[in-house]
Structure formats: C-alpha cells, structure tokens
C-alpha cells in the first residue's frame, strides 16, 4: 500500500499531496515501537511519508470512528483489507461499508494476510 501511495503521488495531479501512514494500536505503550517500525519501513523503501500512530480510547472502540476522526477529510484513503471468510461475506461487506462510509474517496487493497511489514504482531 505504501508503494501504491508513493506511485499515486508521482502523478502530476497528486504531486503536492502529503502521504501519511496511520497505524492504530490498542494501548499507548505500543506507540514508540509502532512509530519506529513505520519509520524503518519508510526509510527502507525510501518513501517520504508521515508516520502517525494513534490509540483506541477503549478496546471496543469501533474502527470506523477512528477512520472518520483521522482520515475523514483526506482526499484519498488507501485501506488494507483481509481475505473474506467463506460463509461470512455479508458480515464482511457490512464491516467494510462501516469503514468507508465516513471517508471521501477510498481505495481498498486486499492483503494476502502473509507477514506483518510493520512488525507489530
């Protein structure tokens, strides 16, 4: 997704955009490690972007609230999604709808689910 954001920002129409990596962690103790991991990834990929790490107010805080708060005004949000579990397609669609509804423009990128590039799990 980072490479995709970088490639989009190379187009003339998007050349003055700010790329930000938003990572949500469950507790404040995870912020320094998450910031370090994101910055290492950005440095390794030689991509200029801002690392932003935020915490949930409580463990049950819905993801769509955080996305609305931190990405609701962005021109483009690139959101990674995992694979759909067979038999749970409708629940998956409802969940994704709740994520994207408060956002302006969303590009969904399906993750293979292999590996954790940010080293947070």
- SS element count, helices: 4
What's the total count of β strands? Answer: 4
Arithmetic mean pLDDT = 85
- Which residue ranges are poorly predicted, with pLDDT under 50 across at least 5 consecutive positions? none
Give the overall silhouette. Answer: globular
* Number of domains as seen in the coordinates: 2
The strand line-up of the biggest sheet is: 1-2
**Helices and strands: which structural class?**
alpha/beta
Give the terminus-to-terminus CA distance.
18 Å
Radius of gyration: 15 Å
The topology string of helices and strands comes to HEHEHEHE
Reported for the largest beta sheet, the result is: 2 strands, parallel
Helix share bin: 25-40%
In percent, how much strand structure appears in the residues?
Answer: 15-25%
Account of the 3D structure:
By secondary structure, this protein is an alpha/beta fold. It has two domains: 16-58, no CATH class; 62-115, no CATH class. It is 36% helix and 18% strand. The protein is built from four helices and four strands, in the order H-E-H-E-H-E-H-E. The protein has helices at 2-9, 31-45, 63-71, 89-100, and strands at residues 20-25, 50-55, 77-81, 106-110. A two-stranded parallel ribbon has the order 1-2. A two-stranded parallel ribbon has the order 3-4. Strand 3 (77-81), helix 4 and strand 4 (106-110) form a beta-alpha-beta unit. The longest helix is centred in the first third of the chain and has 15 residues, at 31-45. The two termini are 18 Å apart.
């Amino acid at each position: 997704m980072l490479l995709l954001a970088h490639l989009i920002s190379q187009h003339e129409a998007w050349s003055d955009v700010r790329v930000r990596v938003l990572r949500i962690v469950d507790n404040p103790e995870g912020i320094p490690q998450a910031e370090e991991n994101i910055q290492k990834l950005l440095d390794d990929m030689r991509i200029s972007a801002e690392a932003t790490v935020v915490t949930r107010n409580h463990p049950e805080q819905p993801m769509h609230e955080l996305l609305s708060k931190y990405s609701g005004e962005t021109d483009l949000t690139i959101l990674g999604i995992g694979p759909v579990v067979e038999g749970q397609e409708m629940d998956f669609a409802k969940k994704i709808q709740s994520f994207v509804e408060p956002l302006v423009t969303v590009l969904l990128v399906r993750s293979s689910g292999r590996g954790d590039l940010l080293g947070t799990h």
